[in-house]
Amino acid sequence: MNSNDYVVIKAAEDGVNVIGLTRGTDTRFHHSEKLDKGEVMIAQFTDHTSAIKVRGKATIMTSYGEIESDNKK
Ligand code: TRP
């Protein structure tokens, strides 16, 4: 069921949050990781994680391509 796909997130500013959301009927945050500028996190979708939310300015690389998240300011 899980593809074990990796997602690479590179922070373009300090304080980027990478948030893991739970799999199943109950969708909630289960983990928040704070990245400073230049830091990289490599994460997977797992039995516990069905969605990943990125808050802040970052480059996100997936098998679907690369996308930039932005800061509202
Ligand atoms: N313990 C979590 C899990 O196995 C760790 C995790 C995996 C995670 N992917 C993530 C946390 C993405 C935040 C974002 O599901």
* Low-pLDDT runs: none
From N to C, what is the helix and strand string?
EEEEEEE
Largest sheet: 4 strands, antiparallel
Distance between the terminal alpha carbons, to the nearest Å?
38 Å
CATH topology descriptor: Immunoglobulin-like
- On the 0 to 100 scale, the average pLDDT is 95
| Rg on CA atoms, Å | 12 Å
Strand order in the sheet with the most strands:
4-1-6-7
Oligomer: single chain
CATH architecture: Sandwich
Helix count from the secondary structure assignment: 0
What's the total count of β strands? 7
Report helical residue fraction: under 10%
By helix and strand content, what is the structural category? mainly beta
Number of domains: 1
Write down the CATH class: Mainly Beta
What share of the residues does DSSP label as strand, in percent? over 45%
Explain the layout of strands and helices:
Layout: E1 6-11, E2 16-22, E3 29-35, E4 40-44, E5 49-55, E6 58-62, E7 65-69
Antiparallel strand pairs: 1-4, 1-6, 2-3, 2-5, 6-7
Folded structure, characterized:
The chain has 73 residues and is mainly beta. It has one domain: TRAP-like (Immunoglobulin-like). The protein has no helices and 7 strands. Strands 4-1-6-7 form a 4-stranded antiparallel sheet, with no helix packed on it. It has a 3-stranded antiparallel sheet with strand order 3-2-5, with no helix packed on it. A hairpin with a 2-residue loop joins strand 6 and strand 7. The model has no long low-confidence stretch (mean pLDDT 95). Bound molecules: tryptophan.
